Each structure stands twice: as C-alpha cells, then as structure tokens.
Amino acid sequence: MAQTPPQRPEPEAEGPYLTVDELAARAGVTVRTLRFYSSKGLLPPPLIGPRRVGHYGPDHLARLSLIEALQRQGLSLSAIDRYLEQLPKDITSEDLALHQALVASWVPETAQPTRLSKLERQAGRPLSDHDLDRLAAMGVLDRGGEDGTLLVNSSMLQLGLRLLEVPIPLETALAAREIVLKHTRALARDLQRLFREQVWQPFVDSGPGEEELDRMRSLTEYIQPALVQALVTAFQRSLKEELRTGAAVPAPER
How confident is the model over 8-19, as pLDDT tens digits? Predict the structure, then answer.
C-alpha cells in the first residue's frame, strides 16, 4: 500500500523549502534525474505543502550531494542504495555533509567550465568577489577560465558552498580540509594494502578460474561502500567524543 507523503510542517519550524525545479538548480542536476533518484528510493519523498505541491529541504540537497560524490567514487546505484540504507533514519543535513566531505576527499579532482550564473543558481544567491576568492582558496574553483567561465571542481562544489555560510575563518576551513585529506588518503592506502596482501593475493595464488576471479572482483562493489561508511561512522563518533571532551575543559583564564 502506498505511503501517504509527509505533510509540510509550519514554515517557522523548518526551512528553507525548495520546489523540485529549485532543488535541481541548486544540485546542478536535471529534474528528470531527481525523479529517477526518487523512483529508485535514493531520495525521500518531499514534504507536501499547499495545493499538494512538493517541497524539498536542506536534507534533500545534502543527500543529493552525497549521491553525486559516491557516483564519482565509482559506486553503482545499487551500491549507493545499500550505502544510504545503512544511514540513520533521523540523519541530519549536517551529518550527510560530513559523509559527503569524507567521500569527496577520495574523489579525483575534475574541473568543469561553469558560468557564474549557473554557479549562483546552485548557491541559491548572488556570489560576491569575496565568495569566489574563498571558493578558489578552498580548491573549489579556478577563476582563470576562458570567456569569463569558472573552472569548478564539481566533487567539492556543494561542500564549498556550504562552507561559505559557516562563520569560521577561511584559514581554519582550509586547515581542516587538509587534515581530512591527509588522513583519509592514508587510511585508503592502508586498507587497500591490507586487502591486497591478505585477501586478493592469497586468492590469486590459489589458482582460481575466470568465473571465480569475476566473482571476487564484483565483491569490491559491496566492500567499498561498507568501508567508506564504517570510516565515516567511526569518524563521526570520534569527533563527537572529542567535542564533548573539549566542551568539558575549562576555558583558559585571561
């Protein structure tokens, strides 16, 4: 039996809300892609407002960014579906952004020529020269494109746009990004070496047939999202513990 779509709460309690066209513009995808993701269960249903119009919130945008990051990592839609199924039902847009940030740090950087007008649609507001300078410093874009275009690193775009709204110094955001990149790359290398030495090489040495080799290769589609999610979950838990510990430490006397 079909589920009744959730009703939209009072505007004062939640927001901001986006129509499907606005969500597509902010995410940099087509409405057709959104509907396809929804049909596959990758996106939760919209909230229903007046005149039965669907409205989307920050969690939908954050989930779309995570889906795009996982796709760039090479995961199939079925693997992405398994990844998303393991997320807590009450996960916040901030936690989704954390998943996206860690996944994006493993994605090769790719620069796509983008007009400022399109970038502003994705940001949902005009972008000043200062905003563009901050995005450039974060490695999100290069302002040296031809004919006024910007070279945008699509894997980091949504994360960079979110950081524009965070009231922390740019230097702090950059330092945090470098820490994440450094340690996630080290983790990826260590895990890849562990898998190669203790799983893949012994399997190859056993002289498997071609069919068995294909089955083993297909396992990576299941292993990769599980590893990524385990790392993100462990990082979230550790970060929360560190924040609790930090909050309990008295501030230094002036």
Answer: 333 333 456 888
For residue 155, which of 42, 71, 56 has the smallest C-alpha distance? 71
pLDDT tens digits, residue range 167-226?
Answer: 777 777 778 777 877 887 788 788 878 888 888 788 888 888 887 777 777 776 667 667
DSSP class of 47: E
3, 79, 73, 99: which is closest to 44 by C-alpha? 3
Q: Phi, psi at residue 127, to the nearest 5°? A: -115, 125
Assigned token pair, 140: 């999100």
CA distance 103 to 232: 9
Strands (E), 3-98: 47-48, 54-55
Comparing 5-9, 61-65, 172-176, the range with the smallest average pLDDT is 5-9
Whole-angstrom distance, CA of residue 140 vs CA of residue 188: 22
Name the pTM for this structure. Answer: 0.53
Contact assessment for residue 113 and residue 149, using Cβ atoms and an 8 Å cutoff:
yes
Peptide bond into 16 cis (omega under 30): yes
Domain ranges for the chain: 170-246
Question: DSSP states of 190-253 as a string?
Answer: HHHHHHIIIIIHHHHHT---HHHHHHHHHHHHHHHHHHHHHHHHHHHHHHHHHHHHHHHSPPPP
